[in-house]
Here is the input.
Amino acid sequence: MPDLIDVHAHHYPQSYLDACRREDSGFDSYVRDDGRLVVLQDGAVALAAPQPMPTLDQRLTAMDEAGVEVQVLSISAPNVYRFPARWRASLTRDLNDELHDLSTASGSRLKTFISLPLPDVEASLRELDRALGLPGSVGVMITTTVDRRTLDDPHFLPLLEALSDRRCVVLVHPTTACCTEGIRDYALALGLDFLAETTNCIARLVYSGRFEQFAGIDWIFSHLGGTTPFLIHRFDNYYQQFPECRQHIERPPSEILRRAYFDTVTTNVPALRCALDTFDPGQFVFGTDYPHVPGGLARFTSTLQEAGLTDADSAAIGHVTASRLLGVRTHS
Here is the structure.
């Protein structure tokens, strides 16, 4: 399965990890037994960053071994949203520039989803104008909630309008929930609630009408869209049962979500099959969550291979759809 485009991969510049450790960062942190930096938001696990991060050569070697031709880097949750406003925008700019430099040094094999200094919308619009123009930038990464605000919040309307007007690709990555009661223990925020966050985000964007209102955005939702493939019938059932679920939309959520995209970050073949049976294979793009998951990229390529895909579906998921969305060419 050569020439894969991996849309869901991460890199954390040292400046970002140092910022997370600052006493005034808005986070707590500690180093786990295996050396990973664990970042806590409101007492719940928001990030477990591998240490040290893979070097450029190590990353490219891992990509070669797995048949990944292009990888799109982003800074995952908790991103920059809790950092103090007095240095959030400047740090975000520096982080976007560091990922751009890494992309340049890779010979264009690495692309980037830029970060934005939210919740400051005006500063984010300025950084969108600047950073999206950097060579190698192919879209925007945003988390399911931004400092306790959901993405359908009216506060974000100017940003959503700008993203739609630009016909941006937006990778939506889960983060620690608005309320962390009940998910602080056992790393539940990271292990399980991330999927609930994504599901909730998708539902809110659909029911609020934002998904159709800003139709120029190409949304990619992480980790198969959380539990959405498993629960899509409930989306439709409640559209029929509750007037508030029909207030902003005129057709069932399952129809609206035919325009959504999802990445294939899972190592559970039955879960992948459920997603592919629920949505069209052309709505999926390949992802690995590298370097977070032990076992590296190979676990995700083997999961895709074990799903029993046709050659056409395999190509669509592996590179065709992502190439069209991101304007990235492969040798295939």
Notes: The longest helix spans residues 85-105. The radius of gyration is 19 Å.
